[in-house]
Amino acid sequence: MTIGELLKEYRQSKGLTQKQFADGIVSTSYYSKVEKNEHRITAEDLIDLLEHNNISLWSFFKKLALNADFEHYQHLSIEEEAIDAYYHSDKKRLELLKQQVDGSKIPNKNELSLSISGWIECMKSDDEEPDLELREKLKEQIFDLPSIDLNKLNLFCNFMEFYTLDSNFFTAKQAINKYVDSKETDIQEALLSIITNLLYMSIKDDNYSYTDYLLQSARKIPLKPCLFLQKELISFYQNLIEYHFDKKQIYLENCKVITQSIKLAGMEEYGKALNGVIAKLVK
Predict the structure, then answer these.
(1) Chain-centre distance of CA 80, in angstroms?
(2) pTM for the complete prediction?
(3) What letter does residue 5 receive in the DSSP assignment?
(4) Which of 30, 89, 109, 253 stands the most exposed, by the fewest C-beta atoms within 10 Å?
(5) Contact of 112 with 78, CB cutoff 8 Å
(6) Element (H or E) spanning 231, and its range?
(7) From the CB of residue 42, how many other CB atoms can be counted at a distance below 10 Å?
């Protein structure tokens, strides 16, 4: 069974027209050709389509025969589901997902299982004992610099909190040197997210040795609509760094404007977290 055939099966089981099923994701004419296997849907659109119609990513991919296309989509869907579970603080769903991956025959399952274990590790409270062996395994996978790629950039970005500012900067510098001129949006987004995390860690550790290099590197990546949030966050941290050295109130006002714009965009909790960063710096 193909992806298009399975989408059609789900759509018909819900009693929906093609327009209703694909509404807001892809055009009806394009989706019609997906069902007929005349067009290939992107991984991003497929995931949006399944979420739009309340179809479990895992259930969908379990029904597909294991082929090259399926392996790509399945791996991506599991990563998306793991990230979603983490941001909803759903530890049980992460643990179930890990069990399913461990019992599956999908390629690179060990790497995927390790990544999910990392998300579970991130959810530990401060009074829980860290899994040092797990963190070391993640470090070995991330810090294999000669083979650093987009997947490793994203993995590194997700688990930077496990490691020191110095070791994180060493890895980030290699990635920046390799990819700062890349035109690929996914690469640019990953680099900006890594830079954002490092700026935050620098402020938290009161260590500003690397901030000039990080801000200069961020400026080399051109602004695109899909990179706006990352650019806003870098501007936020740049103003906090300026305030640290100059103590001019205008820098704090700029930070508050950025925080308010993020709240107005619907990211209320993120805005509150940034206000917490401001409060810690100025107390």
Answers:
(1) 8
(2) 0.67
(3) H
(4) 89
(5) yes
(6) helix 228-246
(7) 10
The per-residue pLDDT for 236 is 97
Would you call 156 helix, strand, or coil by DSSP?
helix
Amino acid symbol at 17:
T
For residue 73, give the H/E element and its range.
helix 68-87
Backbone angles phi, psi at 258, to 5 degrees: -65, -45
How many Cα neighbours within 13 Å face the side chain of 213? 12
What token pair was written down for 221?
Answer: 């990546």
Angstrom CA distances, 150 to 56, 182, 230, stand at: 26, 11, 17
pLDDT along the chain (283 residues), means of 10: 86 94 90 88 84 83 57 64 82 88 79 88 88 88 68 85 91 91 92 96 95 97 93 96 94 95 89 90 77
The Cα 152–Cα 170 span in angstroms is 14
40: its two tokens: 């290939």
Distance separating alpha carbons of residues 271 and 62, to the nearest angstrom:
38
Spell out the residues 6+ positions from residue 23 whose beta carbon is closer than 8 angstroms to its own.
52
The reported pLDDT for the residue numbered 76 is: 62
Please check whether residue 200 is in contact with residue 160, taking contact to mean a CB–CB distance below 8 angstroms.
Answer: no
The CA distance from 119 to 160, in Å, is 12
| 3-state class (DSSP) for residue 27 | coil
278-282: long-range pairs with CB below 8 Å, 24+: 278/240, 278/252, 280/204, 281/203, 281/240, 281/243, 281/244, 282/243, 282/252
User: Which residues are CB-neighbours of 118 under 8 A, at least 6 positions away?
Assistant: 134, 138, 155, 158, 159, 162
CB atoms within 10 A of CB 280: 10
Q: How far apart are CA 142 and CA 116, in angstroms?
A: 14
Between CA 136 and CA 142 the distance in angstroms is: 10
